[in-house]
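tmp note - 1-phosphofructokinase
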Amino acid sequence: MILTVTPNPSLDRTYELPSLDRGAVLRAAVDRVDPGGKGVNVSRAVAAAGHRTVAVVPLGGPEGALLDRLLGEHGIEAAGVPVAGSTRVNITLVERDGTLTKVNAAGPDLAPAEAEALLETVRTRSAEADWIACCGSLPRGLRPEWYAELVARTHRAGARVALDTSGAALTAALGERPDVVKPNAEELAEAVGRPLATVGDAVKAAEELRDRGARAVLASLGADGQLLVDDTGVWFGHAPAEAVRSNVGAGDASLAGFLTAGGAGPVALAAAVAHGTAAVQLPGSVMPSPADLDPEAVTVTASVPLDRVLGEPAS
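out:
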């Protein structure tokens, strides 16, 4: 079972438009609403793969009630923590050429008692979890050290933790030795305080995060592939995507694939790449099912192309 923790979940509304014309009345060709937030997306991908998952989320207002219902419809057990503020609603506008415009709300301001209730809910549910995935930005009211406290409590309970966050929250948590951290290229560059122009730069940055406490680093490099740096060495994975429809949630799908494949080594990296590649070819934040995966298209190698220039250098 994969337990996910999303301290700032959302309802994700996606509108597909011919083009985004500022100041005009626009009519969407397609619109949908999905349960959102990085940890929720991981749960959705885990459930789509046929595995059990429990999502720990703060829920507030009618938006929180709708999120709770949508989680159930996706086969996810919600471990909801009632909060006074309303769950946020995020908007994604997708143009015909694939350009994305996102509007993310701030979310509720959690009181100290609500923050503690989230930690306690994770503790009480951690005993049955194979992995705990802690994902996303922290809402107002939670200090950057909140994830560090969560990792420490989880390790005391004997569980493994995968952490997907950025900035001060990631930096503060490294000292508690999360079992896996999952930055994208921009988050990796931010964490080490320097730009990344090549795959080799990304490898050095991942190794630095390991020196600072992370036991393994699973780094998404966008269309350039993914890196895994852990005790077994450095691994590089890649698969072609025929058409990119939406990259929303692709990193979350990758993490779900990685964890459901054991969370270590090249086999898990291959699953991460397969899930991420499938996700970018689906609309909105739809998570891939096994039928969407093409594992034969994935290449994983220890011969890392260190000199390869990143298609989208991170600064």
